[in-house]
């Protein structure tokens, strides 16, 4: 759990008669998973257990997401808004968040465009740590960085050729191969997508200010 603890006394419980609205967001993809409500006890339970817990207005009791289905929300962080009357929770969902079986209570099509890349990067990190037998990613890791770098080079050339000599479908396919093998190579060096994003963001900030 990587949560930043909140002091209940910092929050304005008076506006909602002791309840605060809570927006729950996927910690990797940014997908909005659900909206719930917490009272002070729900907040304390969430922080103590690491599982996101709400106050159910229909049941009039504390309710831990996934207490019957097992699809818990593992707490990653907690933040309050500027008025201290709304909470933003980032969490790692263990299974679908919605009782309808969708990843989000707002449907399956609300994930940010780049969100899947973060999921893919996390999956590659797990493959690196676990090395499951029969996995193509495992074979790449076991082949060593030199072999992975060679694959990046090959996919880069194929992407460039597709850009000038093939249709959009071929170009997209080659670009997807290139991105995947690049993420694998970064992971083999102990790096990930977030590190690349940090560099891009820093460069952007420097160019905006100059």
Distance between the termini: 39 Å
Beta fraction: 15-25%
Inertia-based shape: elongated
The helix-strand sequence is EEHEEEEHHHHH
Main pleated sheet? 4 strands, mixed
Unreliable stretches, pLDDT < 50, 5 or more residues?
A: none
Structural class: alpha+beta
| Average pLDDT rating | 94
Please give the count of helices. 6
Strand order of the largest sheet: 2-1-6-5
Assembly state: single chain
Total E-strand runs: 6
Rg over CA atoms: 21 Å
Task: Report helical residue fraction.
Answer: 40-55%
Describe this structure in words.
The chain is elongated and about 65 Å long. The longest helix has 21 residues. The strands form 2 sheets. A 4-stranded mixed sheet has the order 2-1-6-5, covered by helices on one side. A two-stranded antiparallel ribbon has the order 3-4. Strand 1 and strand 2 form a beta hairpin. It is built from 6 helices and 6 strands, in the order E-E-H-E-E-E-E-H-H-H-H-H. With 210 residues, it is of the alpha+beta class.
Task: Please outline the helices and strands.
Layout: E1 20-26, E2 32-38, H1 40-49, E3 53-56, E4 61-64, E5 73-80, E6 87-93, H2 115-130, H3 136-143, H4 145-165, H5 168-188, H6 193-209
Parallel strand pairs: 1-6
Antiparallel strand pairs: 1-2, 3-4, 5-6
What brief labels describe this structure?
single chain; 210 residues; alpha+beta; four-stranded mixed beta sheet; two-stranded antiparallel ribbon; 44% helix
